[in-house]
Design goal:
Blueprint: E1 13-15, E2 25-31, E3 34-39, E4 43-48, E5 55-57
Antiparallel strand pairs: 1-2, 1-5, 2-3, 3-4
Length: 58
């Protein structure tokens, strides 16, 4: 799995494939492989996209 890091942008809505109970999150910032997301049921979470491929909601 080699995610395209430029694919993630602030403002996008995503879900975490391993934690669906967190609900929908909005990307707050992207710094390299580190994406900060504010999830509706979990709050702010830092995700390493080298390890987790987020599901983008279009």
């Amino acid at each position: 799995m080699t995610p395209n890091f430029s694919f993630y942008e602030p403002g996008q809505f995503v879900t975490h494939p391993q934690c669906p109970e967190w609900g929908v999150g909005q990307i707050q910032s992207v710094v390299g492989q580190r994406v900060t997301i504010n999830f509706e049921n979990q709050g702010k979470v830092l995700v390493n996209t080298a390890l987790i491929e987020l599901i983008v909601i279009e």
